[in-house]
């Protein structure tokens, strides 16, 4: 309860008591401030409502990870830090403009006004909802962008502006101009304001902003303005709005007026500057519909809660203003009475004193009986939540007297017409729950400028008085804009156009808080209008605090008016006041005393018009509404015995009535029942029964028993339901049917012995129902309730204990064995065929031995004689065999394979030494241990057979063969091919599948229970022995061969090749650098075989792990490309991929439940590995970029034909001086890599300018790249080089030799090359020219000294004498000199042992250049002579002298040499020299016919 009372001597304080809390309110400010009245009334009503109806369940919590930024733009010159261009790259800026403080809703004691803060709050919470996927259905794809709202308050009053400038269009345009057009800041890009991508807002004076936005093509979403002006697409082509237009509301109002049959209507407006423009369309619609309508204009903005000109009105606004107000209002009343319209349509804005005006009209007799009032749906509720508090409390407190308006209910039946909002929708509910949560946590989500504008308690209150009535339109506008932005960002990207965004805005169709949101061709909202009435309870005769009317929806309007409930006008009348007195309609009686019609009360009626008395309804009929013209027969299930009833009574439980208009009900019979108001009796459900008559319900069987059918009349028929069975010991219990079994209704464990003995036929399910095995399962007679899963349905068709398939042994677990005298083939048992089976067995064994012999002879042929095609066939056959065996391992997984995969796996079992296919059970009675022992003896039998065949081959075919070598190669080949089968066979006892009770059977022999039967222990021991003595030695052999590969290669170089020959099966299938791949294959196969052993019964984990192994192996194989043949590598990759697909197909077709924990563990490990791989790759890439290795201080760019040796010599000289150097001829095959070295790993580019160096494309690319990167360049000019002229630079396509490559593919243009070539000709590029006096190798030391900017040491001083090793080259040919220098650097150290005198180079001696060196004498005195032949050697005088002298000396020494020891010694030294020099080669330029030597006399020689 809530109460209010005055206190104090002058009644200027109030005590407000609500829910036991008392607060004192100071009302002194209201004496001088008119706006205080409404504000205080709202405060009192909100406090009362919130204290009375706070939710007891608390506020729902939300997890909001995303928080869109809201920035306030306070003044036109405000500076906003929106981040750098990089920080704004993923942001979309939205301009929101709306009057926050300008709309006056109240005031404080200082007279300052305040306004609505709901718009920015609603926008902020709507943006939070969209960003976090709440309220509305999230988009299918979310764009990777963030939305930044910039909010401009177009009504804020800046301190430096005059008050009259506030809330005007010029100020609004001036404020938003930087947001519309953008405002760059050259001094600080962070302060630059980008143009908005979309605008939100538009209300009254701020529609000018929308006009500017339309002129810019900027999409504008509105939510407040409903004027028809904005539908003009010529002026507002980009304007879209969520608030329905005035035209839509006007149309609905007109439809209501015409529906009610009125011929006149007064349209009341207040404080509208241009009522004809705003409300003229309403008048036009009314007139066009036959309703004569006129305007009546009121003016007033202050609420006083007293009649115009009265005492209270004068006290509030002053005598002069009160008199003027009364004069205007009285004139309006005279005009209204003269027009005499009984329908009042009030179109007054909430900013005016609407309720004062309405009460004044009622005070003067223009409301109440005989009048119908109609207007906006949100206007009149203000009366009950604000105005009632004001006029019932403040009048007495302020003025000592009650206002005449107190207790007035004259607006009973007020009709409100407006857009519908379903407040029970999920969207509406979730948004306001989110609003409560955000409101209580403003410090986390609101910016500083928005916090505290509405107190947290207001958010959690049931009423939301702080929010405007059309707040849902604001929310949907934000959601629509963000939805359209997201869509255009996903479809187009951040460079979308305004037209593209506008198209998506106009095509929006989503469900928001106001319902479905979509727009017509003008961008106007297509609304659903509701027609509501404010209805007071007939018992209410006066208003006071706490009394509120009912808001009833009576109709809807979309394109037509639809009435969904009765009208209720003043006094509760369902009829609108007529224009003239009418005869009373049927259902009413005419009261002559007052000349009015009175409705018949409920239970009575009048059948004809004009009747003066109402009569009661007959028994069996009723009516429950006033003004009834007849009575309604009681429907089936109801009856009534009294006259004048207002309702029919429901038939009592246990009775029914199946005919209408009855006065009594009848009883239900046995086995049936009925609830109240039943039209018939229902049969008792299964599990219940009913005895006797008149049962209101049925009795349930004792749990857990049930009945077989409906309508049971006794508890004797209760039994166990389907899926359960009755225990033999606890007869009152129904136990769940065991796994793998099915229990029909009434199954009884006690009947099992009778069924097994045949005393009770299993076909009689009503009398002999017992638990039976499902298909694919069986039970043993000794264990009838323990189901064993079988490996095939044909083996176990299901049924009573001991039921197996044809010729199956029912005494074995899972019907695993065939009966004696039969054998299994393809899961089916057949009778043995007599002696033919022996022949087949012998033929199989002979065929196997012949196959082994063929393999032995094939794999030990001379490898040189084997063609590559034959090797490819052999390798591909091995890959295929390995793949087939790998797929055979799939059958060991815990998957139920389907046909034809099941048959394929069955056919592959022979490769795993499954000897059952040989019909061994036809020769003796098998058991699990014997069959598994035979299976494990297959590998030793093959090994012995190989040895015997090799012995026979040595004796009769090839006596000189080495048994050990051939045996290792033959056995290795065969066992490599059968390795997976051998491994699978060894671990077969550990591969088990589970039964419903948790026990397990061997997959290879279902009759053996794993870790339970003694046979299983024996098979494990046999498998272990086989592993140790067969499989493990082979694995050790593979590992030994892999580790000894290097040793075997070394032995082969000295003629001992037995090791390589013995391991041919391991090495020669693979590339030389992938000799180890055989060991990898063995490891892969071992891991694959161990998957079903290590991972037991977890099908999903098995499949994932198997797929991971195969994919990993495939990646390794594709990376290594190990096979010698390219086709083999392709087939291996395809085979592995096919096996993964094969595994996937089997998994998709299987029915199993995955263990989420194991899959999550494996997935996490794989994903972690994936992330680590990516991180490692990125780290390596970044490291190589930041710290390139190797780093070269010098890069020599040259043309190989004219400067290869010179470049190489320069590298040698620079390297010996501690410098790092690279020459481009080292890697001309990969120009991309070459240019990357220039870009990332180079300090200085040296260009050897020979004749055609600049025509080479790689040289052009190196020079252009260095120029663009700003790398230092130095040119070494060589005689004969000429720079390209300007014509050549303009025609580089022909100047450059582009036959081998093009530069455009490396992003190097001809302009880049031309610019770089022009720069080479400028002084900006240093150039080195060798002086004339520098000869021989000194030229290169000179170049190095110039490059290093220091004096070159005398590194080429001739310390050796001519009697040592003499090297002769053409001194005029720098390329030949460089070649000779390179040769000396390579052989100098190696020749020192037998030529201690050193190496003497003739071209280094200045005497040669001056003609003073006797070349012939030097050659004769030397220990050895090397003549370097170049293009001009035969035209060089010194070269000819060296050749002639050397040849003469050879002739003389050859004749004189006699000592063999000396010759042998020289031969050894010569061999060593050639061995050292064999790794070095010089490729000089070709001989040129034009290269001649010219004598001093000018003649040619």
Give an overview in words:
By secondary structure, the chain is α/β, with parallel strands linked by helices. Helix content is 39%, strand content 14%. The protein contains 42 helices and 55 strands. The strands form 20 sheets. Strands 13-12-14-15-16-19-20-21 form an 8-stranded mixed beta sheet, sandwiched between helices. It has a 6-stranded parallel beta sheet with strand order 4-8-5-9-10-11, sandwiched between helices. The longest helix has 31 residues. The relative contact order is 0.04. The N terminus and C terminus are likely disordered.
Mean pLDDT over the full residue set: 80
Largest sheet: 8 strands, mixed
Derived from helix and strand composition plus strand pairing, the structural class reads alpha/beta
Annotation field: number of helices:
42
Q: Which percent band covers the strand fraction? A: 5-15%
Ends: how far apart? 134 Å
- Report Rg: 53 Å
Overall shape: it is flat
Helix content: 25-40%
Largest sheet strand order:
13-12-14-15-16-19-20-21
- Identify low-pLDDT runs: 1-24, 31-35, 45-57, 102-114, 159-165, 1466-1501
Strand segment tally: 55
């Amino acid at each position: 309860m809530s109460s209010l009372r005055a206190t104090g001597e002058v009644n200027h304080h109030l005590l407000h008591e609500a829910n036991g809390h008392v607060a004192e309110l100071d009302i002194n400010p209201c004496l001088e401030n008119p706006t205080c009245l409404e504000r205080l009334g709202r405060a009192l009503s909100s406090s009362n409502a919130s204290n009375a109806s706070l939710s007891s369940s608390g506020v729902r919590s939300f997890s909001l990870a995303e928080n869109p930024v809201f920035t306030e733009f306070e003044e036109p010159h405000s500076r906003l830090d929106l981040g750098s261009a990089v920080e704004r790259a993923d942001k979309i800026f939205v301009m929101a403009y709306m009057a926050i403080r300008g709309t006056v809703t109240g005031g404080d004691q200082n007279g300052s006004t305040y306004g609505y803060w709901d718009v920015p709050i609603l926008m902020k919470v709507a943006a939070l909802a969209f960003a976090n996927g709440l309220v509305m259905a999230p988009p299918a794809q979310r764009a990777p962008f963030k939305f930044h709202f910039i909010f401009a308050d177009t009504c804020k009053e800046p301190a430096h502006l005059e008050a009259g400038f506030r809330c005007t269009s010029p100020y609004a345009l001036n404020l938003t101009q930087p947001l519309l057009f953008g405002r760059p800041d050259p001094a600080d890009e962070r302060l630059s304001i980008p143009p908005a991508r979309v605008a939100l807002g538009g209300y009254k004076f701020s529609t000018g902003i929308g006009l500017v936005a339309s002129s810019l093509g900027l999409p504008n979403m509105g939510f407040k303005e409903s004027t028809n002006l904005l539908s003009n697409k010529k002026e507002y082509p980009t304007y879209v709005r969520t608030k329905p237009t005035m035209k839509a509301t006007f149309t609905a109002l007109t439809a209501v007026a015409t529906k009610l049959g009125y011929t006149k209507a007064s349209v009341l407006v207040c404080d509208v500057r241009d009522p004809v423009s705003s409300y003229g369309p309403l008048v036009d619609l009314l007139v066009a519909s036959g309703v004569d309508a006129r305007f009546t204009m009121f003016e007033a903005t202050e609420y006083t809660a007293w009649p115009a000109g009265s005492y209270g009105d004068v006290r509030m606004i002053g005598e002069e203003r009160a008199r003027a107000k009364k004069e205007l209002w009285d004139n309006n009343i005279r005009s209204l009475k003269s027009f005499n319209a009984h329908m009042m349509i009030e179109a007054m804005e909430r900013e005016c004193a609407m309720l004062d005006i309405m009460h004044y009209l009622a005070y003067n007799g223009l409301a109440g009986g005989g009048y119908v009032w109609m207007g906006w749906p949100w206007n009149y509720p203000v009366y009950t939540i604000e105005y009632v508090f004001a006029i019932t409390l403040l009048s007495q407190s302020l003025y000592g007297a009650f206002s005449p308006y107190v207790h007035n209910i004259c607006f009973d039946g007020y009709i409100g017409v407006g857009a519908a909002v379903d407040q029970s929708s999920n969207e509406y509910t979730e948004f306001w729950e989110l609003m409560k949560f955000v409101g209580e946590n403003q410090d986390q989500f609101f910016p500083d400028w928005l916090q505290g504008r509405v107190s947290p308690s207001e958010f959690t209150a049931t009423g939301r008085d702080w929010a405007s009535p059309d707040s849902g339109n604001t929310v949907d506008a934000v959601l629509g804009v963000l939805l359209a932005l997201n869509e255009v960002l996903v479809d187009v990207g951040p460079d979308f156009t305004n037209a593209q965004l506008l198209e998506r805005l106009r095509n929006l169709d989503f469900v928001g808080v106001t319902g479905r949101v979509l727009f017509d061709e003008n961008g106007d909202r297509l609304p659903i209008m509701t027609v509501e009435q404010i209805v007071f309870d007939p018992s209410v005769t006066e208003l006071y605090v706490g009394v509120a009317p009912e808001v009833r929806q009576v109709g809807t309007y979309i394109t037509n008016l639809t009435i969904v409930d009765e009208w209720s006008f003043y006094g509760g009348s369902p009829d609108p006041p007529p224009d003239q007195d009418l005869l009373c309609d049927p259902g009413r009686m005419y009261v002559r005393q007052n000349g009015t019609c009175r409705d018949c009360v409920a239970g009575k009626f009048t059948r004809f018009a004009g009747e003066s008395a109402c009569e009661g309804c007959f028994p069996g009929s009723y009516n429950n509404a006033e003004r009834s013209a007849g009575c309604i027969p009681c429907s089936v299930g109801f009856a009534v015995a009294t006259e004048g009833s207002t309702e029919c009574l429901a038939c009592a439980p246990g009775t029914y009535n199946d005919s209408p208009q009855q006065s009594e009900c009848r009883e239900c019979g046995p086995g049936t029942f009925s609830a109240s108001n039943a039209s018939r009796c229902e049969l008792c459900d299964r599990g219940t029964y009913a005895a006797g008559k008149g049962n209101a319900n049925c009795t349930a069987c004792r749990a857990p028993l049930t009945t077989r059918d409906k309508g049971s009349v006794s508890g004797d028929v209760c039994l166990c339901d389907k899926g359960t069975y009755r225990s033999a010991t606890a007869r009152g219990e129904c136990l769940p049917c065991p796994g793998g079994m099915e229990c029909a209704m009434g199954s009884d464990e006690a009947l099992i012995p009778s069924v097994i003995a045949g005393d009770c036929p299993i076909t009689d399910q009503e009398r002999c129902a017992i638990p039976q095995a499902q298909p694919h399962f069986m039970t043993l007679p000794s264990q009838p309730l323990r189901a064993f899963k079988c490996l095939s349905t044909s083996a176990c068709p299901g049924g009573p204990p001991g039921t197996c398939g044809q010729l199956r042994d029912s005494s074995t677990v899972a019907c695993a064995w065939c009966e004696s005298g039969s054998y299994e083939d393809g899961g089916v048992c057949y009778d043995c065929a007599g002696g033919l089976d022996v022949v087949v067995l012998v033929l199989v064994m002979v065929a196997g031995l012949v196959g082994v012999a063929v393999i032995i002879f094939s794999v030990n042929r001379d490898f040189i004689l084997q063609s590559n095609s034959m090797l490819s066939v052999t390798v591909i056959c091995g890959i295929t065999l390995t793949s087939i065996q790998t797929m055979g391992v799939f059958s060991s997984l815990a998957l139920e394979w389907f046909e034809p995969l099941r048959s394929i796996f069955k056919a592959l079992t022979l490769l795993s030494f499954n000897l059952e296919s040989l019909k061994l059970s036809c020769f003796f009675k098998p058991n699990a241990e014997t069959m598994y022992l035979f299976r494990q003896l297959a590998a030793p039998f093959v090994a012995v057979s190989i040895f015997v065949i090799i012995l026979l081959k040595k004796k009769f075919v090839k006596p000189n063969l080495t048994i050990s070598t051939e045996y290792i190669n033959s056995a290795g080949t065969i066992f490599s091919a059968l390795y997976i089968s051998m491994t699978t066979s060894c671990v077969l006892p550990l591969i088990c599948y589970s039964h419903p009770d948790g026990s397990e059977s061997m997959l290879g022999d279902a009759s053996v229970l794993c870790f339970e039967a003694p046979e299983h222990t024996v098979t494990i021991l046999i498998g272990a022995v086989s592993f140790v003595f067969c499989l493990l030695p082979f694995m050790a052999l593979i590992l030994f061969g892999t580790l000894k590969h290097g040793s075997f290669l070394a032995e082969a170089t000295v003629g001992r090749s037995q090791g390589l020959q013995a391991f041919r099966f391991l090495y020669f299938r693979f590339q030389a650098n992938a000799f180890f791949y055989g060991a990898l294959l063995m490891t892969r196969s071992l891991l694959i075989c161990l998957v079903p052993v290590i991972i037991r019964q977890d099908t999903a984990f098995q499949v994932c792990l198997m797929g991971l192994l195969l994919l990993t192996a495939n990646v390794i194989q594709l990376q290594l490309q190990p096979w010698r043949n390219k086709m083999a590598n392709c087939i291996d990759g395809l085979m592995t991929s096919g096996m993964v697909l094969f595994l996937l197909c089997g998994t998709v077709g299987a029915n199993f439940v995955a263990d989420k924990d194991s899959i999550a563990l494996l997935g996490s490990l794989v994903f972690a590995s994936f992330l680590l791989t990516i991180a490692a790759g990125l780290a390596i890439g970044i490291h190589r970029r930041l710290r390139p290795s190797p780093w070269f201080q010098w890069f020599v760019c040259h043309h190989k034909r004219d400067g290869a040796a010179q470049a190489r010599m320069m590298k040698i000289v620079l390297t010996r001086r501690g410098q790092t150097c690279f020459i481009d001829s080292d890697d001309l095959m990969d120009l991309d890599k070459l240019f990357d070295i220039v870009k990332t790993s180079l300090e200085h580019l040296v260009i050897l300018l020979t004749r055609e160096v600049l025509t080479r494309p790689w040289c052009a690319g190196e020079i252009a790249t260095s120029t663009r990167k700003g790398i230092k360049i130095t040119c070494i000019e060589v005689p004969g080089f000429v720079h390209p002229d300007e014509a050549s630079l303009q025609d580089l396509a022909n100047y450059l030799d582009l036959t081998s490559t093009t530069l455009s593919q490396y992003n190097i243009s001809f302009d880049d090359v031309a610019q770089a070539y022009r720069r080479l000709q400028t002084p900006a590029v240093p150039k080195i020219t060798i002086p004339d006096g520098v000869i021989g190798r000194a030229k290169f030391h000179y170049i190095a000294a110039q490059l290093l900017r220091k004096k070159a040491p005398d590194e080429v001083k001739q310390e050796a004498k001519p009697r040592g090793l003499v090297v002769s080259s053409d001194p005029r040919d720098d390329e030949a000199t460089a070649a000779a220098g390179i040769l000396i650097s390579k052989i100098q150290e190696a020749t020192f042992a037998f030529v201690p005198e050193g190496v003497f180079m003739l071209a280094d001696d200045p005497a040669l250049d001056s003609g003073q060196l006797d070349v012939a004498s030097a050659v004769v005195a030397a220990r050895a002579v090397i003549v370097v032949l170049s293009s001009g050697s035969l035209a060089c005088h010194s070269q000819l002298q060296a050749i002639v002298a050397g040849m003469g000396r050879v002739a003389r020494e050859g004749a004189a040499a006699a000592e063999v020891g000396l010759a042998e010694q020289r031969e050894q030294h010569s061999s060593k020299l050639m061995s050292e020099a064999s790794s070095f080669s010089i490729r000089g330029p070709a001989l040129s016919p034009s290269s001649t030597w010219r004598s001093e006399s000018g003649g040619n020689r």
